What we know:
3 helices, single chain, eight-stranded antiparallel β-barrel, 28% strand, mainly beta
Amino acid sequence: MHKTALIRALVATTCALPVLAGGCKEEPIPLFDEHGTWVLSLFALEDGNVISDFGSGLRQEKYMIFFDKEAKVVATAACNDSMGEQGLKASQCDLTAEQGGYYCRCFEYEYDETEMLWTEFVPKGQPAPPEPSEEDIDAGVVPPKNGVRIQLEEYSPEAYNDTFRYKPLPFGVFDSNGVTSQYVFQGRSEAFFDATGCRQVCGIAGEPEM
């Protein structure tokens, strides 16, 4: 059982005990414990698209996010290639981290049960991210620096473990249109994200081990 589901079960059991004379009010519990690395496994970029995988091993497990629960910062990492591509359907992901193999974006975040709010910040020395056009904004896109609300839900728990759907991501993150794009992430070890260098970019690298 996923640890968040276990916590929910324990709270429900405790609230059912008759010894609690004053009753029990269940505190809101997030859908999952977000801290650590999450790798993009499935996506649907436009409304009406069937959610599917990359279709190429070159790009699998090369797009990911990392939550620092204490700092309330999430870093995103998209793999670059030697032609300057970062797209989910186009990048060859053929550069090392030292060659600029990942494009990083940084967000402060809030998390309430089944919703997150990501607000972008640009670290000193980093390039400005793409901005939505007036046409995009008219279509409902929220500029990432203004805070983007993301809906969360567990994805096919009967088939996948520790896997959750995000809708949408902020404009431009992993080709998101900022309105209807959907992304499914699966948990990985914290260290899996380290090769991207994006924790350092976003100021959440932590202290080096001695």
